[in-house]
Structure formats: C-alpha cells, structure tokens
Amino acid sequence: MKKNGHIHTPYCPHGTRDPLDQYIKEAISHGFSEISFTEHAPLPANFSDPAPGQDSSMDINELENYLQEIESLKKKYKDNIKINVGFEVDFIEGFENDTREFLDTYGKRIDDAILSVHFLKFENEYDCVDYSPQNFAEMVKKYGSIEKVYKNYYRTVLMSIHADLGIYKPKRIGHITLVHKFQKKFPPGYNDEADIMEILKAIKDKGYSLDFNGAGTAKPLCGEPYPPLWAANIASTLGIPLVYGSDAHQVKELLQGYDLMFRKR
Ligand code: ZN
Ligand code: FE
User: What total of structural domains would you count in the chain?
Assistant: First the structure.
C-alpha cells in the first residue's frame, strides 16, 4: 500500500498547469496504489490573502470544475489506482466559522483532506509564513525575532488541532514544521523539539494523522521533510499514522523526498 496523500493540481494558482491525467499516470508508474488531490481550498470570502502574489488558493469559481473533473478521473482510472478528491484546508485564526461553513458545505463531496497552517495572525495582521525568504525576513523584523515567528507558528498549529471545525474537519494535520522552510537562512536560535513534541502529543490525543511531507527536502534552505525524520520516528512510536505527502505542484515532484523519508524507517 503506497499512498501519496498530498498532491496539488492545475487549479493551484502558484503551481503549474501540468494536467491531472499526467499526475495520475505518473503516480501509477511510481507504484502508488492510492493518491489524494488536495488543492488549496478557497479562502474565506472576507479574508484577504496576505501572500504578496495573492495566489495562495484556488478560485472559488473553479471549485465545481475541480470536483467534477476529479470525479470523472476517479471512474476513468478505477481499475488502476484509487483516487481521492479533497482539499488542503487552511486553518486561519479568527476565521474558524467561515472554515467550518465551507467544510459543512463541501465536506460530503470529498474523500480526504489536510488541515494546514500557512497564515499567522500577529497584532491583527496576517502573514503567509512560507511565501519567500524576503517575506519571512519582514515577518522576523515585525515580530522581533525568528523564535517569535516559530512560536507563533506552533501556537497556531496547536489551535488548528483543537479547533471545532465541524464534523468534516480534516483528520490529517499538514506539514507541522513548515516554519522550517527557510531555516538555513533563518536559524531559530532555540531548540524547538519541545514545541514539536507538544504538537505530536495533541495529534495523538485527538486520534489524527500526520502529513509526512516531502516538499522541504527539495527546498535548499530547508533540507528536511516536514516534520524532520526524528519527529516522524517519534510520531510512529506514538502510533500516529504518517501519510506520505509529496506536496507536488508539478508532475515531476510526485515522489519528492520519498526515498530519504522511507529508506531507514
Ligand atoms: Zn501550494
Ligand atoms: Fe501547504
């Protein structure tokens, strides 16, 4: 059973136009028996995307096409691979009600989903933590230290785990150490193992699973999966299900990190 539980699509405005068919064929050729398309769900209508490119999520006007296109591909490939349709849902502090409403509306139409933190609230403003090193530098300046950015990331991930987002709340928590994305340029200056442990324990208590995400391995300023191997090993020991996620935004990223992440585990 080889699953890839985190794949983006041509519906992602910061991704590529690689067609869904190609992702599926490539996944079959890599021996995946199950894949989940988890496009960034549309952001709440009155939330202004803080990413400078305003390109964080799919357009709500494309939602029907997205769901229907994958539904038909599920049937087309049903003898070759199990295809799930779903979302990567943003947890946004202060927008829990909007997110719950979205999930109440669309939850019954999806098979799988991830709950992720990309946006951090600080003094009533929001920032996108993984947009670019330049943007991260501006956050550090505003917060006062790298450590404060880290602490706010982990605080928000913990909130996401405890949030009441209704019966369709995703059961898998996305890239819990995304704040490491630029760590070689912005070392945190403290040991964040206790923060990560606290998150793993909360995931365990809730009975959730973990997005074991290969994207960071391909980012030169990160150089490790989300979460790093030591934390993934502890998660395994705790009995938390780890679900590999390539976080591919193009076909050639469908296996990113996989060998490194599963070699010695
Ligand atoms: Zn993305
Ligand atoms: Fe993400």
Answer: 1
- The ligand whose atoms approach the alpha carbon of 116 most closely is 2
> CATH code at 147?
3.20.20.140
Going by their DSSP bridges, the two strands 34-40 and 119-122 should be labelled as unpaired
Range of the domain at 106: 3-264
Bridge pairing between strands 112-116 and 82-90: parallel
Q: Could you tell me which residues come within 8 angstroms of residue 217 by beta carbon, excluding any fewer than 6 positions away?
A: 223, 224, 225, 256, 257, 260, 261
Ligand 2 centroid from CA 246, angstroms: 11
Ligand of minimum distance to the alpha carbon of 128 = 2
What's the 243 CA to ligand 2 centre distance in angstroms?
A: 14
Per-residue pLDDT reduced to its tens digit, 51-81: 999 999 999 999 999 999 999 999 999 999 9
Dist. CA 76 → ligand 1 center (Å):
26
Nearest alpha carbon to residue 216 among 178, 264, 172, 259: 178
Residue with tokens 């929001």: 126
Please state the pTM of the whole predicted model.
0.97
- For residue 114, give the ligand nearest its CA: 2
C-alpha distance across the termini of the chain, in Å: 16
Among residues 75, 63, 68, the alpha carbon closest in space to that of 12 is found at 63
Q: Let me know how many helices (H) and strands (E) the chain has, helices first.
A: 8, 9
